[in-house]
Design goal:
The complex is a heterodimer of chains A (112) and B (289). With 112 residues, chain A is mainly α. Chain A is built from five helices and three strands. Chain A has helices at 2-12, 25-32, 36-48, 67-91, 96-111; strands at residues 21-22, 52-55, 59-62. Chain A is elongated and about 55 Å long. Chain B is elongated. Classes of the chains: A mainly alpha (112), B alpha/beta (289).
Chain lengths: 112, 289
């Protein structure tokens, strides 16, 4: 399912933009040297997540419909990183306040 | 979904071996890998599909036509690749081609010459001078040059070097860009070919064990590695086959959820390879016998 994660990531990161066409299932299977069914399932999952649209005869495109979902996903990724920072801070004996203070300090420095 | 091959209750008995009541559909538009240990019946099955031998009972439909009744129609539309040499050893590649080509209405001479070049085969070389790998390449060139709807390959990767095996993957993927074409290959070793197989038909001792989408098969089974203490009469029942050593056991469980529930916290669990399936199924059989 590495393929799924990779395509999803490309869409969520904005590397693939709305309306951009994806390779056909059989072409992608060939390029990645995996089975057609594996690739087909990846596309079906992306459709279910409303990240891509498939049009019979025309192929698959990055969906523009779900900006909100994409935003949510990206927010979730930021939250995960924040939690990571808190966890590492704790290992260094920093309280939540310490971490927030440090972060504010960094922002001020950046803006100065 | 259409089927490229439909086998119904197919049996063939030899003095020491029996292909037993095989019912099997090979899906059109996909690549199916026929796997199993040596002597499982893979080659016998392929010889039946291609009409080289006749079944004792049961029916074979290849590309919608009954075999052997409509064999000639079928043979024109399939390509066969095998390391067994069906060619006249004393002829050159060019002479052999001239004998074979007229049998195919859709023979494409230019395409054939392209393949010879791509596979680095000299048309002046005699068949008897070809290595095993070169013979496979030659039969592949013939098979791909008459617009075959179904490509049947018997142990195609034995004798091929890793470089050409990868090239072969590309050639096969090219062929099934057209969704009406199908490929079936047999093998007893895990090869890179399995990467691109959509379906796996597993035969063992003349019987079909399963024919399923490869992704489903690999998700259903689970390899469990752990301490011998985990094995008792009950937990043993989870396994298709078990390999026991002084330091512990390794087994193939056929119910992933159940294996996770029973052993998840106590043993190492991971996805099996197809080779694991072949090995443990054969081992389990011996154990029970």
């Amino acid at each position: 399912m590495q393929i799924l994660t990779q395509i999803r990531q490309s869409i969520l990161s904005g590397e693939l933009v709305a309306g951009e066409s994806l390779p056909s299932i059989r072409q992608l299977a060939k390029d990645l040297q995996v089975s057609v069914i594996t690739t087909k399932r990846v596309y079906e999952e992306l459709e279910k997540e409303k990240l891509i649209d498939s049009v019979v005869g025309k192929g698959s495109f990055v969906s523009g419909a779900n900006q909100e979902f994409i935003r949510e996903q990206r927010l979730k990724r930021i939250e995960e990183k924040m939690l990571d920072i808190l966890r590492e801070g704790k290992e260094l004996g920093m309280s939540v306040q310490d971490v927030v203070k440090h972060f504010t300090l960094l922002v001020e420095e950046e803006e100065a | 979904m259409m089927n490229a091959i439909e086998l119904r209750n197919l049996s063939k008995t030899y003095p020491l071996f029996k292909l037993d009541q095989i019912t099997l559909d090979i899906k059109q538009g996909y690549i199916t890998g026929l796997i199993g240990p040596n002597g499982a019946g893979k080659s016998t099955l392929i010889s039946l599909i291609t009409g080289l031998i006749r079944p004792d009972s049961g029916s074979i439909k290849t590309l919608g036509k009954e075999v052997p009744a409509q064999e000639i129609n079928v043979k024109e539309r399939i390509g066969i690749v095998s390391d067994e040499c069906f060619y006249y050893e004393h002829l050159t590649i060019r002479e052999m081609k001239s004998m074979i080509a007229p049998f195919y209405k859709k023979w494409d001479e230019k395409l054939f010459n392209n393949y010879l070049e791509q596979f680095e085969l000299s048309p002046k070389k005699k068949i008897e001078e070809l290595s095993k790998g070169m013979k496979i390449k030659f039969s592949l060139a013939i098979a791909l040059s008459h617009d075959a709807e179904l490509l049947i390959m018997d142990e195609p990767t034995s004798g091929l070097d890793p470089v050409f095996r990868r090239e072969l993957l590309d050639l096969l993927a090219d062929m099934i860009q057209d969704e009406t074409r199908s490929i079936i290959f047999s093998t007893h070793i895990t090869t890179d070919l399995e990467r691109i197989a959509d379906y796996i038909a597993f035969i063992h001792k003349g019987k079909l064990v399963f024919n399923e989408a490869k992704d489903d098969v690999l998700e259903r089974y689970m390899i469990v590695k752990g301490d011998m203490k985990l094995l008792d009469a009950d937990t043993r029942r989870q396994f298709v086959g078990i390999r026991e050593t002084a330091v512990g056991f390794e087994g193939l469980a056929d119910n992933r959820a159940e294996a996770e529930r029973l052993f998840g916290n106590y043993a190492l669990l991971h996805r099996p390879s197809l080779e694991d399936l072949i090995y443990f199924t054969a081992k389990g059989e011996k154990h029970h016998a």
